[in-house]
């Protein structure tokens, strides 16, 4: 797997712990394809992504009370595609399809070795993903539940399941709100449900008394 296309990659480390940040910098600075390293706290991530426009964000979720990392992946640098790799405790981290839709390209446990980091960063920077086998199997199983949906419709369903409005979905996907409405209509029809709520419940494997 070649990282030639990103031989001068800019990596942003987002972590609230100075000690962990220093450790991550020491690992990543040894990779020849990383030219620029920046840091920020998790709370300042959106501003840092917008200002710096990194190619890849290493996002530590070790101190996050949220199990699902999707909400932290919303920042975008204008039209610049930003890829994310989450670092944290596997038992406390839930990777959902909407996380991948939002830009998550990988997950590393806090026990990962420098070699693991190298493989994950190289994969993400060349457009691939890097997840532990159990997470990959879970994501594949989820997507196979709705083979009637196109990839774009599946992405809309993922974001609907996060409780996002059409406006926020449009912003996240970089498309017009009218296009989102069209996708939502297709999703409801293909899932044979009458409302967004019923679609969300079905996506989560639940049922509605009104369905």
Quick tags:
211 residues, alpha/beta, five-stranded parallel sheet, 43% helix, 14% strand, elongated
Question: What does this 3D model show about the protein?
Answer:
Helix content is 43%, strand content 14%. With 211 residues, it is α/β, with parallel strands linked by helices. A five-stranded parallel β-sheet has the order 2-1-3-4-5, with helices on both faces. Helix 6 (151-161) packs across helix 8 (177-191) and helix 7 packs across helix 8. The longest helix is centred in the C-terminal third of the chain and has 15 residues, at 177-191. The model has no long low-confidence stretch (mean pLDDT 82).
Strand order of the largest sheet: 2-1-3-4-5
Q: Main sheet, how many strands, which sense, barrel?
A: 5 strands, parallel
- What gap, in angstroms, lies between the N and C termini? 47 Å
Calculate the mean pLDDT score and round it: 82
The string of secondary-structure elements, in order, is: EHEHEEHEHHHHHH
Unreliable residue stretches: none
Structural class, from helix and strand content? alpha/beta
**What is the multimeric organization of the chains shown?**
single chain
Helix content: 40-55%
Q: Provide the β-strand percentage band.
A: 5-15%
Number of strands: 5
Number of helices: 9
How many whole angstroms does the radius of gyration measure?
18 Å
């Amino acid at each position: 797997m070649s990282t030639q296309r990103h031989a001068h990659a800019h990596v942003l480390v987002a972590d609230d712990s100075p000690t962990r940040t220093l450790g991550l910098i020491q690992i990543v600075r040894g990779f020849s394809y990383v030219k620029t390293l920046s840091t920020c706290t998790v709370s300042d991530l959106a501003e840092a992504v917008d200002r710096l426009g990194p190619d890849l964000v290493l996002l530590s979720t070790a101190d996050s009370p949220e199990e699902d990392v999707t909400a932290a992946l919303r920042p975008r640098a204008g039209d610049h595609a930003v890829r994310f790799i989450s670092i944290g405790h596997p038992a406390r981290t839930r990777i959902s399809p909407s996380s991948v839709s939002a830009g998550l390209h990988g997950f590393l446990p806090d026990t990962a070795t420098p070699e693991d980091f190298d493989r994950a960063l190289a994969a993400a920077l060349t457009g691939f993903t890097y997840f532990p086998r159990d997470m990959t199997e879970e994501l594949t199983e989820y997507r196979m539940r709705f083979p009637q949906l196109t990839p774009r419709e599946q992405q809309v369903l993922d974001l609907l399941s996060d409780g996002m409005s059409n406006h926020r979905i449009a912003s996240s996907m970089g498309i017009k709100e009218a296009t989102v409405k069209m996708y939502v209509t297709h999703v409801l029809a293909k899932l044979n449900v009458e409302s967004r709520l019923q679609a969300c419940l079905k996506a989560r494997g639940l049922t509605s008394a009104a369905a």
